[in-house]
Predict the 3D structure of the following.
Amino acid sequence: MTQPPVVKVTGLVKIYQTGGLPVPAVRGVDLVVEAGEFVAIMGPSGSGKSTFVHMLGGLETRTSGEIWLDGKRADTLSESAWAVLRRQKVGFVFQFLNLVTNMTVADNVELPALLGGASPRQARERREYLLSELGLEERAAAAPGRLSGGEQQRVALARALANHPRLLLADEPTGNLDSRNTRDVLKLLGKVHRQGQTIVLVTHDARVASMADRVVSILDGQIVDDAPIARAPRRPVGTAGDIVELHG
Amino acid sequence: MRVIGGSGRAEVRWIRADLRARRGQALLTIVAVAGIVTALITAATLLEDGTNPWRGLFERGRGAHVWIHTKGVPDVAALRGLGGVTDIAGPYRSAPATLAERGRKVPIALQESTAELPPVARPLLREGRWLDAGNPEGVVVEQSFARALGLRPGSPFPVTGLNGATHTLVVAGLAESGDQGFYPEWTPGLAWTLAPTLTMVEPAPGRTETVTGLRLADAAYTDIVVQQAVITLRNQVQRVSTWREVRASMELDNRLLGLLLALFGLAGLVAAALALANAAGGRILTQLRDIATLKSLGFTRGQVIRMLVAEHGTLGLAGIALGLVAGRLITTYALSGTVVVPLSPGPTLAIAAGTALVVLVAVWLPAWRGGVTPPIPAAPASPPGGRLSRLARLALLVRLPPALVLGARDAFTRPATAALTVAGVAVPMMMITIGLGCWATLDDFIRHPEQVGQAAALSVRPGDLTAQEALGRAMADPDVVTAYPGVELDALVPWQTRTVRTRALGLSGDPYPFPVVEGRMFRDRGEAVAGQGLLDLLGVRIGDRVRMTIGGTPLIVKIVGRVIEPEQDGEVLSFGIDSLAAKDATPPQFYSLVLRPGADPGEVRRRLESRSLEVDQAVNPADRLAVIRLIIVALVAVLALIGLANLLTASALGLRDHLLDLAVLKAMGLTPRQVMATLVTGTGLLVTAGAVLGGAAGASLSKGVIDLEGRSSGVGAGIGRAPTPGMLAAAVLVAIGASLLVALIPARRAARAQVPVTAR
């Protein structure tokens, strides 16, 4: 029995109405992402890649086309149903402003678990585990504003993974980080991926994209290239699950 | 179910974090709402208690609905057997006596009581001690009577019985009672003594009477029970009084007070709604980005709305709860002298539910606004583009400093928010101004009593003297300028089952200086002036003729003018004493004395009293409305707090909108001081606009509003005063000054802070 693809998109179109004029951002994208894949979506600014990923997570509505997440049709869902789907199956990391500013780091990471119905104890245990894996346990009580950019992105990653999502969507997660922090975050993403996490990552940085199994290039709202990156075979893809032993 | 419980936890977690992050602001919201509820509760309690103190007194003392005066001891068992009677008070013996007080003799009724407070018709001890068998000279005096005579616990109480023997008793305590009206409306004054003391003062059993009180299961049975009692006791009954008479004698003519309090209550509610909407709206606007993040995490729109309503609503409800407690405490302790019974559950519930509704409505709109935020945190809500406003262009034109111009531009980048801020300051300011107008009106009452019909500060009654002697003695005083002869009579009005007060004062040719505000003063016999209340009661207008039966004589008078009439809810007709039949007019009951300007009425009163004249000092309406001043002070404080809360919201919003501009401004070469000036100008301009607007609106409205209140209270239009220009200017300046100070602190911090240029 084959698993359904984590993401299946057919004929996805997004047209913004700006001042009465239709401005197409995404024009007919088809894409399939299998479980365990790490797909990088590349393209210059304004190519529609962010819009595309936002639509995958239901943050923006599509104009036409179909979105299937984990074998279920998602594009017809209401805003609330999308919200529920997100909390169960999708983790988001944005370029910045990922964290709820008035909550501590600990609260930020616990929030998705609580939202998903975990007990406060389970949420705390999960948070402690994730933060310790990311080496941030002593920043648990800090306000997000007190963290460096790299730390903030790592916390955002921890929060995105809190509910064991089927799909991790990352929109330029390293966009405003220096090279060292970029490397740290990418290393984390790589490790998470090796545990079987399906990832769709948007970037305009070729070095970042090179981490992925497959690079999809978008230009003017259309896929112009879709190619796997050849590399030494890795151990087979497992099921999506905990990130374990991120250290070492 | 588990999912719901879990997501509920997430909401609670967020609310807790948000409240922790803005403790001060949250506290301010709570205090503002609590202040308003406290003011409402206090006002309603004062109103309820003020309009009818009888209810509280009667219930507290388990008063008797019917009092039967008989010659001898009645058949108590038979009375108890009457249908509807639940309890019996007494029978008590009662004896008439005279109290010798500063040269004049005041009739009193001594009533027997027990050393232990009776269970029914129990006097409510207010000061001193109750009767004590170990101290037989002690009497307990009814409080309003004691106040009128200046008696305190420990004062001597020289009583003369009908046989002429004087006994020096001592006031042991003061008590109130729901079974006896207030002095002087209800005479004679009442004093309770022990049975042996009563026997000592009035040894002859034939000269005492017996009073027996009947407490009924339902006040509606009163008439039937009275009939049955009269039949049962046959010829024994001398007189019967019921609770209705007592209540009527206690009802005060303070409809004006009630209306003013209601006005302030309404103002408070509007202000509360505004404060909450502003605070919640401002807060939510500053956290739209966080809300977007929450939605990207999987919070639904409904959850966000619920969360925000819960957070801000909880603050409001906490404020209401605090206000209810504070209101109860204030009315119980701080106002224990004036308030007898706490507010009854009905109005309390109405206030709580009303404010709760206002709170939820005021909070729901901004919460909904937060709920529909798009879930993309990377797109912060940015203020619409910075086109220079007309005002800013004008500022540039007259070459104002750049900081002012930029600030002026900033002030209006969000027109809706700017309007809300202006309104948030203007409405409290307007209410404060109207409050100051009320204050000025009260001051005016005191400064110009002649404008509310109290040109005469004192009135003398001849008492034992002849009218001529009394007039001579009064005029002999150097401070007395004029004396107008006067008579007050009750008149039966056609089509009305009740009587109204008529006042014959001065002569038609030499009238008392009534404050005529409409029409003209009476000049001839048969002409009269009336208060608004009387015009409304009879449905007549100036120029109409009315027929009345005054003192048994039918009289037709033409109403030629309307006067300001603070007495009897304005239901008073005034005319010259020569319009009355001679039998009613001579001798005059009293002379109203107009004093030399600057004379101290209390001083003159003492002098006249030392010449054995009975002198009454006019009670200025401002004194009866004195409680309004307390309310005004409280309301101004609460409103100032609300204005401040609105201002904090506005300046927080301003900062948020311009945080990114700050970097640009600095890059352009503005010094921190100029940046600060820009920020302060942004809020300051709105605040100044609000304060000036509110002040102007209040000043122009206050006279009209107070006149409206005066009109519907019967006193009549024409009493309203706008706040004095000095008072108004001071209020506006204080408001603006305080606002600028408050705006300065965050602006200063922002101007000094290192602004990250990245986050957009």
Chain B touches chain A through 37 residues (CB under 8 Å). The first strand of chain B starts at residue 66 and ends at 70. Confidence is low (pLDDT under 50) at residues 1-5, 379-386, 756-760 of chain B.
